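User: quick one - fold this with zinc ion bound?
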Amino acid sequence: MSSNRLYLYVPPEEEAEVEALGALRDPESACWYIGSGEDPTRFSKWLEESDEDAQDEELSITSDEAYVASATVSCWRCRARIVVICIYCASGIASGEPLARFTVSHISAMDSALVRQLEPWGTFREGYSEGSQDSYFANHCPHCRALQEDLYLHSEPDQPLLQRSARRTGRDQAHPARGKGPVERG
Ligand SMILES: [Zn+2]
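Assistant: Sure. Structure tokens for the protein plus zinc ion:
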């Protein structure tokens, strides 16, 4: 993979447009990009703010110190009190960069070891989010089956998940989990 490629974020209906402007498509990843010979300003609409932001879009996270943090919240749709989880890493490597104490959201894929460890939380499964127009692993309400948006959970006024995650002594809430997979960090 060439390092002087600039990758573009192109919705399917705009593919013809970027192709006409000179963008190329990587045959393996199916990602659109421009080479160093192209003027990036013509493609600014499809570029992230900076390269760093682009790397944040999808991270591959490996952690040997990950926990499942659970919290009770109200379902946004039916208002039932439900248990939701998030994955909290005391330490980990995200795309080569060491990170400490972070939660992981918008998980697009997990390895089989992590999937097995999340089996007790059957309501945490892959689902389609209307909000982000994407499929990812998310909590679901066991009563009305509504997908509980990661964004919603993490931005609750009292931030139940983040508070629980930070409480590392809460052994009943934190279950060691090991795994890796391409995920996005919230
Ligand atoms: Zn519900």
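One thing worth noting: Residues 50-56, 155-186 have pLDDT under 50 and may be disordered.
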